Amino acid sequence: MSVLELEDVSKWYGDVVALNDVSLDLEAGLTGLVGPNGAGKTTLLGLLTGQLEPSTGRLRVLGEDPWGNAQLRERIGFVPETLSLWEERTGRDHAHLAADLTETGTRSAADDWLARVGLAEAADRPAGGYSRGMRQRLKLAMALVHEPELLVLDEPFGGLDPVGRREMMELLTDIDEAGRSILFSSHVLHEIETLTREIVVLVGGRIVAQGDIHRIRDIMDEHPHKITIRLGQPRELATSLIAHDDVVRVRVSEPTDDDPGEVLAETRAPDVFYDRLRDTILEEGYDIQELLSPDDNLQAVFNYLTKGASE
Amino acid sequence: MNANLALTRHALREAFTGRRRIGLALLALAPALLGLGLRRWSEAAAEAETTFVLFVVGVGLVVPLMALFIGVATLREELMQGTIVHLATRPVSRGQLLATRMTGAALATWLLAGIGLTLVFPAIGHLDAELVGLTWLVTGMASLAYTSLFALLGAFVERPILLGLGYLVGWESIVAGSGLVFRKATVAYWVRSIVDQQGFVSGGLFAGEIVDPATTTTAVVVLVAIAVVAGLLGTLWFRRREITGSEGG
Questions:
Q1: What's the ipTM?
Q2: Residue contact A84–B81, C-beta within 8 A
Q3: Domain-by-domain residue ranges, chain B?
Q4: Does the model's pTM come out above 0.90?
């Protein structure tokens, strides 16, 4: 069964369109929702968790309409983006309240989750003194006290330092491995890439891509792929590269006293290009100092998709 | 713990958080401090002074003000601070959420005002068990009706404290004591009816005897009805209200 089904869902606030005719079908598993700030990610998650009502379209979460559906929320855990907590209340108070408001959650489960997210020692301190990382972890514990089938997180890495990010990623990996479906949003692609290959890309209120990161990259391969080669003899290498049909463009920066030269090549067949480049380097004995391809990671896919969608 | 109990307890605790706690404590102690002053000023202070402090100052002024400060904050603060999302995404209905908020806020007002007004008795040095019972009854009824109304006000309008003060001074205090038919459209008329029916003086900011007081039973029913109607109106609105991230920061 699909975890999420959206059919032509739109959401607007007055004249502002936050989501525009979005259709989506998500199976169980760990999925990343990626998009720049203002893309509509929080609106989409708000619709899925019943905080917002769609302006048009049909929406199903675990087979049910989430708007006004309190019972469905027994099956969903939500970690909101806001860091707001009840400042004078302890972490344990927060987790216990979260458990008390569910049928399946218990206070002992809440204590267990506090320990699992690393807040056992700080649980009896007022939340007002919690760091951003502790707040994120507390919100995660609150969302999990009733062992929901679906966990939805809005920017769970927001404001976390590198250690906090790593800990949060480990927690999410554990939760995923326990068989729970997870949908989380982020505008930092590296975070999503580290956790999952399944992504939904949302830009300007529209879904511009969905599926396996590598499949989305295949789409990229139909478009010129940029490769930068820093070496002492850029003009010679450029002459060699431009002779091939798959290379659509070559730009040369001559060496200076401070910098080596640089060749920026654009190719429609990156795999062929790399094989040939390796052979050329070996045959001609070029002194390659650096080889970069900004198109080699998801960031490039994202940049391409977001640029294309906004044009 | 049952969800309704947990939410009510949460609302009760939240009523006394932050800087509001000090203001509310001072407000609660004001009648007792006034009673102490009266006791020092007049050795003969007894029932008349006690009922004046309890019903004119306490029920007529302190309870509505306390209900205003607690009531407007009860939902408004959660909405403004963004903590409402932690409640609204739990498996509880919006109606439950609002009803328990109002109940918790009314309980907070009742308990604080009731304790504050009970301290008037030792402060003045006049203890009357019947009067203590009446004080808790009237304070409870006034807390329920006023807090529910102000909770609604806090959720709907931008400057609820200012509007609430205007309502108390401009409508409740003046109209309730008048002979106008509109007097029955005030909370004060029904609250003061309970006190007047027991043969005590009541009043508000502009104290005076009320015209044609209702029976105690009618007054209690109407005050409960005011709270229920406020709760139903609030629920109708809150059920359709969307929780957006922008109000939470």
A1: 0.85
A2: yes
A3: 2-240
A4: no
